[in-house]
Amino acid sequence: MKTRTHIIILLFLSFLALVGLFGGSVYFFLNKYSYNDLYKRLETRARIAAEHHFSEDTLHVENLLRAREAYLEKLPEEKEYVLVPLPSEARDSTSKATGIPGDVLNGLATEGVGTGKKGETFFAGVRHRVKGRENWVVVSAHNYYASHHLSYLRGLLWALMLLTAIFTFLFFVYFRRHLFDPIARITERLKHISTENMHLRLADESNNKELRTLVETANGLLDRMETAFETQKNFISNASHEFGTPLTSIIGEAEVALSKDRGPQEYRESIGAMLQQAERLNKIVRSLLFLAKTGYSNKAINLTIVRMDAVVWTVKEMMDDLHPGNNITIDLSLLPEDPRKLKVNGNADLLHLAIANIVNNAFKYSSNKPVTVSVAAADREVVILVKDRGIGIPEEELQFIYDPFFRASNTNYFEGYGIGMPLARNVVKLHNGTIQVTSQKGVGTTVQVNLPTIDNAF
Question: What global pTM score does this model have?
Answer without folding.
Answer: 0.46
